[in-house]
Write a structure and sequence with these properties.
alpha/beta; 17 helices
Length: 539
């Protein structure tokens, strides 16, 4: 069973990352299925510091949940080496009637070509018009004929080539006109054998004959093989002893990788006429084959959304995934599901608070280090309990987690916001810190938020920030772009903005606006204070 991915929103903050990690740990502890925590972007300074502090590795970076070839129930046929005889390929195709083609690989498992029943039949028909073989490995020939070399093996060739002559017991000289190096198939015909030896045949195949003992250990340049097959079958099997590489389609192949997206695969398949396509892994080795019917009902990736329920904030390709659960503390947005899902949305200050509550409900206790990380996430998202989104439950949960971890919340809070932002980061990195897009009453805007102990340090880079914000605003066609510098000590936010100044003035009752920024006292929450104020203004 494929794992279920748990992840928060894009440009993740600490709560988003920790909520994914703690919920995946909870579900794995319950033994339900395999849950894998993921993130939708690079870690900010704060989150990276906390993960290192409590001894956790960052969750995997998930870039898309679009359906890929690896999500299909593709065929896994046996793979053929390029040197195996055609007869072996034919047997496999007969045993697996649902297979239209079999991949042929080199010694390293890499794709050499594809072989089909049609290519085998075409080769068989060519042998009727051109009764000749070239460089057939002796081991292939012995296997196909169920035969053995009867003369001195040291004197025979490793490969057999030549025009094929079936010396039937008829009147006259059956080998008249025979060229040196021919392959002679005969039965109980001593005269024919002697003549073939004199004419320097490359190989004599004795079918159902007791002449073999006569030529045992004979030194000759002619390879002599005894087989229980009759002459007709020996002739047919001779052509099927050639390596599959000789009749394999090796040029103009259309193949796919496990990482290819189904949308792209469909387009390619529609433009080609093949019935089967080889599939390669990351090392370019063949792992299976794909047919058109595999594309009808592909398996979708299964996901759990935490700390968001809005498509614009989620992973690319979400529409192709199967959403299993949503756990969030934001307003309901636009995520749609094809089936009923478990959803838990509560008006608390942190998604991690909800997940910690679920630990309690199931009678489980997180480990000391996970409890410490979860307490830090609650502190971060509630701005040390100063955010208007904070509830008494957030505080109670954080205090309980702190007791499990044996840590002091006040000290941890100061550490968090001291590490929340590095002033030596690029302006692009600063702008993308906890960045989210919003669509309100026909207005598109982007809002980033940096929570720190001293907003003045970041504000000092305003001459750099404004041009970068303008570039970002133009690129995404935002009506307005905001950057919140939330100062924990001052309990307010330096709001840097690009857009209509009157909107900022009316929405936040701001008076002292200068140079595209204004200080908003007691404003610390984007969700509870910034977005609702704009929504109210715009209707």
């Amino acid at each position: 069973m494929d794992p279920i991915f748990v992840f928060g929103h894009r440009n993740p903050d600490t709560d988003s990352v920790v909520a994914a990690m703690s919920y995946a740990a909870l579900r794995n502890a319950l033994g339900d299925q395999e849950y894998v925590a993921a993130r939708l972007g690079h870690l900010n300074d704060e989150t990276a510091f906390l993960l290192e502090k409590f001894g956790f590795k960052p969750p995997m970076l998930l870039q898309t949940v679009r359906t890929q070839v690896r999500d299909l129930d593709y065929d896994r046929p046996p793979l053929l080496g390029a040197a195996v005889p055609v007869s072996h390929a034919w047997e496999i195709l007969r045993e697996n009637e649902n297979l239209s083609a079999i991949p042929v690989t080199d010694e390293g498992g890499h794709l050499y070509g594809m072989i089909t029943a049609g290519s085998i039949a075409e080769s068989d028909m060519d042998s009727v018009q051109h009764p000749q073989v070239t460089d057939v490995p002796i081991f292939n020939l012995l296997s196909a004929l169920e035969g053995r070399v009867i003369n001195d093996a040291e004197d025979v060739f490793d490969q057999i080539s030549g025009e094929v002559i079936i010396a039937l017991p008829t009147a006259g000289n059956v080998l008249k006109g025979m060229k040196p190096g021919s392959i002679v198939i005969c039965g109980q015909q001593p005269d024919v054998v002697e003549q073939a030896l004199q004419l320097h045949a490359s190989c004599i195949i004795l079918c159902q004959s007791d002449l073999a003992e006569k030529y045992r250990d004979m030194h000759s340049e002619t390879c002599m093989i005894a087989t229980p097959c009759d002459a007709y079958r020996a002739a047919r099997m001779l052509y099927q002893a050639i390596p599959v590489s000789r009749i394999t389609q090796a040029k103009g192949l259309v193949y796919f990788h496990l990482t290819d997206y189904i949308d792209d695969v469909r387009d390619t398949v529609l433009q080609s006429r093949y019935r089967s396509y080889p599939i390669l892994d990351e090392e370019e080795k063949v792992v299976g084959t794909l047919s058109r019917y595999h594309l009808i009902r592909p398996r979708r990736k299964r996901v759990v959304l935490v700390d968001h329920n809005e498509t614009a904030q989620s992973v690319p390709g979400l529409e192709q995934a199967e959403i299993m659960e949503i756990i969030d503390h934001h307003r309901l947005a636009d995520v749609q599901t094809g089936n009923p899902v478990f959803m838990r949305n509560e008006p608390v200050g942190s998604t991690t608070t909800i997940i910690a509550t679920m630990y309690q409900e199931r009678g489980l206790m997180p480990s000391e280090k996970l409890a410490g990380l979860m307490a830090a996430a609650v502190l971060s998202d509630t701005v040390m309990f100063k955010s208007p989104t904070c509830t008494p439950r957030d505080r109670r949960i954080a205090e309980r987690l702190a007791r499990i971890a044996g840590i002091d919340l006040d000290e941890l809070g100061r550490e968090i916001f001291s590490a929340s932002v590095s002033t030596d980061k690029t302006v692009e990195e600063l702008l993308n810190t906890d960045f989210k897009e919003f669509h309100i009453a026909g207005h598109d805007l982007g809002i980033g938020q940096i929570t720190c102990l001293d907003a003045e340090k970041v504000l000092g880079r305003l001459p750099e920030l404004l041009p970068a914000m303008q570039k970002m605003k133009d690129a995404h066609h935002y009506d307005m772009q905001l950057l919140m510098l939330t100062d924990v000590l001052r309990e307010g936010t330096e709001l840097i903005f690009l857009g209509d100044e009157d909107v900022v003035r009316m929405a936040f009752s701001a008076r002292d606006i200068k140079d595209h920024h204004v200080f908003l006292p007691k404003v610390v929450s984007r969700k509870k204070q910034i977005v609702p104020a704009l929504a109210l203004l715009w209707g």
